[in-house]
Structure prediction request, 222 residues.
Amino acid sequence: MPTKLQKFAEFDTFDNCFTLFFENSKEGLSLKGKWHEAYFKNKNPIVLELGCGKGEYTIGLAQKHSDKNYIGVDVKGNRIWHGAKEAVQNKLKNVGFVRTRIDFIANCFSQNEIDEIWLTFPDPQPQKTRERQRLTNIIFMERYKSFLKPGGLFHLKTDSTSFYEYTLKVIRENKFNVLFATDDLYLNCPAEREELVEIKTHYEKLFTDKGEKIKYCCFTIN
Prediction:
């Protein structure tokens, strides 16, 4: 297995990886508003995974749905390396990765550019003083609204009961539209949505192996 430094070096050579650092965050990513024509070379829907980690979900969905484009976002380049490497090896042309902080996410995409968002096992930030850092806080939701199409789906998967309940509270307070929600996805997975339990992230495997219940909700924010 390559070292962290070797992963970073190879990450920079992948043509499916892009980075937005703090110092150029105001300028925005060069692909902002141009993902369809400049990168994917098609007009298929674009699905975003926030906090993608090693990219298991991004890759899994891309393999199942060749008629959609997928972008994984994470701040850790050595994590993204795994998914990016797999995409290169399997010649997946409907996959891209962005290394940046979610704070700068609105500078990566233009209005109505994203069709769907996945948030998979984010840090629940359980301390009350960290509420503004929770990725379903209304501050972040407003950023997502700036690029998510009207009616675009937002999916959350988490093992954290407190984060799940917090998100449902944000949904209620802001009158977002819940399409489906369950505090035990593996027990209540819809028959037509098997991919919800077939594709597992690294953390999801750890949690399910420990017998943790996986929470899931799907809703719209605009």
